[in-house]
Amino acid sequence: MDEPQGLIKPDRRRPEPLWHQAEMALRELVERGEWSSGMQIPNEDRLGEMLGISRITLRHALRNLEEAGLLRREHGRGTFVRSATVVAGVRGLTSFTDEMKSLSLQAGTRLIEANRVPADEEMADALEIAIGDPVVQLKRLRLGNGMPIGIQTSHLPEARVPGLLEDATNVQSLYGWLKEHCGITPVKAKEVYRVGSVAAADSELLQLTAGTPAFEVERIAYDARGPFEYALSTMRADRYEIRSTLYV
Fold it and tell me: Per its UniProt record, what PROSITE patterns does this chain match (predicted)?
């Protein structure tokens, strides 16, 4: 494989570690599309030659890019640019939009439904409001690089989010809108992941056959005042991964 155009080679005279310089150089190739989704990248020997670094230094950079969700290594086959996949694990509390940015994916949102509904027992319990209180319900298709990642239905107490229902069609980052218009800044969230399947009503949007295995995610997000969002999501299992690092 020819050397990619514009490859920024690590320079020992710079203060940053060589592995970090290599990681940034390879990340740049992915982000600008020089290495496209699904493409197999050069082997370690060739990459080390291109960058002028040792195999140990290169492996440090590749491991970081794999953990960030940009690359995937397949035993016996090689290393590939990962397709639009969200990698969930130990991470900070972020919006879907910010999570996409961290993985060098272009976030997209398509509003499916926006309604005012009375809180049922489940919503009321999660949001710490009374049963029957008005709740803004937003059902949205979440996209990464234009490809469906999942369907998310958010429930928010209407009293805390005035104007959200009327402005729903213009909202791309919900957390960004909440901070700007309502002064709501998330401080923590509780999430539960379960194995489920794609409902018939969602199969066309997710571009999957009904009954296909998927992750079902339940999330309650809090700001300084308490819970402000109860979200239920169905995430494509082939584009959403959960990783954990375990310690003794």
Answer: HTH_GNTR (PS50949)
The pairing of strands 188-197 and 147-157 is unpaired
135 is a domain residue: yes
Q: Are 86 and 104 in contact (CB under 8 A)?
A: no
Host H or E run for residue 230: strand 226-236
What is the distance between the alpha carbons of residues 207 and 143, in angstroms, rounded to a whole number?
Answer: 12
Place of tokens 């959960």: 242
Cα–Cα nearest to 31, from 92, 101, 130: 101
Query: 234: domain range?
Result: 86-242
In a shared domain, residues 162 and 62: no
Q: Domains in the chain: how many in total? A: 2
- Residue 5's pLDDT is 73
Q: How far apart are CA 174 and CA 97, in angstroms?
A: 9
Q: Is residue 103 part of a domain?
A: yes
Dihedral (Cα; 105, 33, 241, 212), 10-degree rounding: 90
**pTM score:** 0.63
